From TrEMBL:
Bias (Polar residues) ranges: 353-365
The family this protein is said to belong to: Belongs to the NusA family.
UniProt-recorded Gene Ontology molecular function terms: DNA-binding transcription factor activity; RNA binding
Protein name: Transcription termination/antitermination protein NusA
Stretches for region Disordered: 345-365
Subunit structure: Monomer. Binds directly to the core enzyme of the DNA-dependent RNA polymerase and to nascent RNA.
Cellular location(s): Cytoplasm
Function of the protein: Participates in both transcription termination and antitermination.
UniProt lineage: Bacteria, Bacillati, Bacillota, Bacilli, Bacillales
Organism whose genome encodes this protein: Paenibacillus phyllosphaerae
Length: 365
């Protein structure tokens, strides 16, 4: 070792943020193993690297005893005091045993240790950077694909986007840019593992937060999201300021804000509805774009029976039940939809007693 080596460690400390003392301690520990392996010894040794000159010395550590039974681990009082007159029984005496060619072994070991520690430190920095981005959106470039995953280059790390987390409308090839939602960040023995999704409801939520300043500023809140990725989504919004229209804020002038999100999601339809503490009103809004005549709430079963005009029944239920299913996910209530005629026949509710409820929602195709 040399002064140049110590200076190199100082440079690593400045550039990589790894303390020089930590590196030296790691090298010393590795050199103990190297010494025992290369010189076939079971001696208890200590390796010392001078922090200023870089000079390396190996010391055998032996217990001071009256009678030596194992010369590799013990030293007599007389021999110990020949080294240092202050040694007494049961002290640990240190005798320098630095091999002549130990410098070459030390250089190789130090290089391996420093390389490993730099790699570990870089992995740690990447992990810390991305653990803070969990449940956030990232942009990346598609690198390759296997039978189960897309691998996306995020710059300093490659992330995994399972094919099951792609929308049905997604078609990516090598070199394509992809915007995804970070679902999980794990610290593994191979380094940070980052998992992405394009189907997670959080992607829709974060896109609105990025696109709508009122949401980013906290004036408008996203209270609930229900999503069937690639087909249709519903989002319930609420304004903390009575003068700010939450639905209008999300739609934007001429629908520009929400249209940007629809484009990013490859044409996924989005219903933006006003959240309400009133269950009847909230359920009615959630069934947008269908018109609702009446909502009857059954608190104990957490179920809402919804009555709609006859001509609106299929719209309220949606293709393969999608609209009703998303409304139930959004509100957290079971929803039973009946037409006016069905309600009259089953429950004896005359049509004349029903009137269209006020609904506040917008559907974007």
């Amino acid at each position: 070792m040399s002064m140049e080596f110590i200076e190199a460690l100082s440079e690593i400390e400045r550039e990589k943020g790894i303390a020089k003392d930590i590196l030296i301690e790691a090298i010393e520990a590795a050199l103990i193993s190297s010494y025992k392996r290369n010189f076939n010894t079971a001696q208890n040794v200590r390796v010392d690297i001078n922090r200023h000159s870089g000079v390396i010395k190996v010391y055998a550590r032996k217990t001071v005893v009256d009678e030596v039974l194992d010369p590799r681990l013990e030293i007599s009082v007389e021999a110990a005091r020949a080294i240092n007159p202050h040694y007494t029984l049961d002290d640990i005496a240190e005798i320098e045993v630095t091999p002549r060619d130990f410098g070459r072994i030390a250089a190789q070991t130090a290089k391996q240790v420093v390389t490993q520690r730099i790699r570990e430190a870089e992995r740690g920095l990447i992990y810390n950077a991305y653990i803070d981005k969990e449940e956030d959106i990232v942009n990346g470039i598609v690198q390759r694909q296997d039978v189960r995953n897309l691998f996306v280059d995020l710059g300093k790390v490659e992330a995994v986007l399972p094919l099951t987390e792609l929308m049905p409308t997604d078609k990516f090839k090598h070199g394509d840019r992809v915007k995804s939602f970070i679902t999980k960040v794990e610290n593994t023995t191979k380094g940070p593992q980052i998992f992405l999704s394009r189907t997670h409801p959080g992607l829709l939520k974060r896109l609105f937060e990025l696109e709508v300043p009122e949401i980013y500023d906290g004036v408008v809140e996203i209270r609930s999201v229900a999503r069937e990725a690639g087909f249709r989504s519903k989002i319930a919004v609420h304004s903390r300021n009575a003068e700010v229209d939450p639905v209008g804020s999300c739609v934007g002038q001429k629908g520009m804000r929400v249209q940007t999100i629809v484009t990013e999601l490859k044409g996924e339809k989005i219903d933006i509805v006003r959240w309400s503490e009133n269950v009847e009103e909230y359920v009615a809004n959630a069934l947008s774009p269908s018109k609702v005549l009446e909502v009857i709430v059954y608190e104990q079963e957490k179920m809402a029976r919804v009555i709609v005009p006859d001509y609106q029944l299929s719209l309220a239920i949606g293709i393969k039940g999608q609209n009703a299913r998303l409304a139930a996910k959004l509100t957290g209530w079971k929803i039973d939809i009946k037409s006016e005629t069905q309600a009259e026949q089953e429950f004896g509710r005359p049509k004349s007693a029903m009137s269209t409820m006020h609904q506040d929602s917008v559907s974007i195709d």
